[in-house]
Structure formats: structure tokens, C-alpha cells
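Hi all, a correction to my earlier message: I attached the wrong file for HD domain-containing protein. Here's the right sequence:
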Amino acid sequence: MSNTIESTIQFVKEKLEGAEAGHDWFHIERVWKLSGKIAQTENCNLEVVELSALLHDIADPKFHDGDETLALKISRDFLESQSVDGKIIQQVLFVIQNISFKNRGEAPKDLPIELKIVQDADRIDAIGAIGVARTFNFGGFKNNLMYHPDIQPKLNMSKEEYKKSNGTTINHFYEKLLLLKDLMNTNEGKKIAEERHRFMLTFLDQFLKEWNVG
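and the right structure:
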């Protein structure tokens, strides 16, 4: 492991201390490890992949009044302080800017493989058993209802609608999480996502069965 990666890990751990449990250091660590796993199957710049994975949620707009520029500033300042090559910094900032689900409509069509890898890893951590746990943790954090049979999922929301949405936690599966399997970029990402997607379907079937006392 390079000194730059070690320094970045320490920086992120300190920066995210006390963060909401679905977007804390352990989320970053899982995405970093998943990115490394996927990167082994692709021809890519591993330094860009690792730095992007480690810094992708350094200032998630959800927790900073929707500010999408803060993460870019923090990441740039840190990477410059570590004397990272300017070209690498630009590539990392590009990943951070274009990784999110809500920004998918604004992202360029021809994405670099490094972004595809980290995006897959981030989306994989949003599904499966970990995804279920993170979703309910965040729903509780926002004091959202777990489920309401009269509140239907809002499909095809615009970016602004998505940012303002305070729907139920169960609806979030239909509005986002169940869509992620088909948005994977890499073959390895698709393979990992398949299993996790099946788990979510099983969970939702069981949840609704128990809710309806079936």
C-alpha cells in the first residue's frame, strides 16, 4: 500500500468520525475493497480507483444541505497537500462528481473505466443484506416511515424530486435499489449484484408477508 493511500485512509477516517452509519468509514472501506476486487478484472489506473473510492463520500451532499461542490474542494485540497499528480487529481474529482445515482442523467455517456468500477462498488454496497441494513438505518436517521400501504413508490423521479424525497423506506427499494442491478457497468459488478438483488427480493417478499400477517 502506498503512502498516499495510507494517508488518505487516515484522513477519511478522521473526517467521517461520527458520521451516519450508512455513510461512515466502514461504508468507504467496503467500497474501497469492492473497487479493488472489480479492478482486478479490468484494465485501469488503480491509484485513481483507490483514491476515488476512498474520497467519494467525503462530504455527501445529503448531509451538507445539498452542496455538491464541498466534496470536490475537500478532495482537491487534500490531494494537493499530498503532492498527487494534477492529472490524477482531475480524474479522481471527475469520479466524485459523476458517481451518484441522482446525477446519472447529467453524466457524460463515455465514462472512464475508473468511474465505472467505483460506481459499481458504491452501488453494490447499496444492495443485498448491507443495503437493507443501510436503508433502514438511514430511514430511521430521517425519521421516515418504514412502510405505508397507501403511499406508492415514485418511479422516474427527477434529480430535484429525488433529493427532496421523504418517502417510506420500503419505497426506496422500488425507487432506487432494485434498479441498480441493471445499471452495473462491469461484468464483475453485474455478477456480484445478481446475488444481492435476489436477496432483496426475498427480503421484500418476507417483509410484506409479515406486514400483512400472511
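Sorry for the mix-up. The first helix runs from residue 3 to 15.
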